[in-house]
């Protein structure tokens, strides 16, 4: 039984001077908090779903790129084999000989034209090719001396091929 200064709100006695709005606000705040939590959970699940879809799409794109790269590797391997075969064809001795004879007008040398030198080429000491250390040695340059040795070797080799020297 309610007392004289009490009123009934939702089945409960409340004093007449106490505002009823405070209890209603608490209930409203609790409902708002629950709905915010529910919306946050739904948004998080939606975000996770979008992330999963994005990852799947990226995997598909990477898979296609892998297939394309494997095809490109196979094409390049085939092209490499073709080029190696072409190099082998172009550098074969029989092809080079045919081109030398037909296009360049060359011919095979006779045995008389080929000369084998039996004598060893004299070795020029490195010291004689180095720069002179004193002013007195500066008369002859090392390259001039080397040139004279090469000319001397060339003239002796040409005399041997002509049969002048035994």
TrEMBL record:
It is found in: Cell membrane. The chain crosses the membrane at residues 35-55. The keyword Coiled coil applies. It comes from the Bacteria. GO terms for biological process: FtsZ-dependent cytokinesis. Keywords: Cell cycle, Cell division, Cell membrane, Coiled coil, Membrane, Transmembrane, Transmembrane helix. It is a single-pass type II membrane protein. The keyword Lipid metabolism does not apply. One of its GO terms (cellular component) is plasma membrane. Residues 59-86 form a coiled coil. Belongs to the FtsL family. Essential cell division protein. This is Cell division protein FtsL. It comes from Syntrophothermus lipocalidus (strain DSM 12680 / TGB-C1). The lineage of its organism: Bacteria, Bacillati, Bacillota, Clostridia, Eubacteriales. The gene is ftsL.
């Amino acid at each position: 039984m309610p007392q004289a200064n009490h009123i009934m709100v939702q089945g409960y006695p409340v004093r007449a001077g106490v505002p009823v709005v405070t209890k209603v606000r608490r209930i409203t705040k609790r409902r708002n908090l629950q709905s915010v939590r529910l919306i946050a959970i739904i948004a998080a699940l939606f975000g996770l779903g979008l992330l999963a879809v994005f990852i799947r799409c990226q995997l598909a794109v990477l898979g296609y790129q892998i297939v394309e790269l494997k095809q490109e590797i196979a094409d390049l391997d085939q092209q490499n084999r073709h080029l190696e075969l072409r190099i082998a064809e172009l550098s074969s001795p029989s092809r080079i000989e045919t081109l030398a004879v037909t296009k360049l007008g060359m011919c095979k040398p006779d045995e008389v034209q080929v000369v084998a030198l039996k004598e060893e080429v004299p070795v020029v000491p490195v010291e004689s090719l180095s720069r002179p250390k004193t002013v007195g040695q500066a008369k002859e340059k090392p390259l001039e001396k080397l040139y004279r040795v090469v000319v001397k070797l060339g003239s002796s080799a040409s005399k041997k091929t002509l049969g002048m020297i035994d």
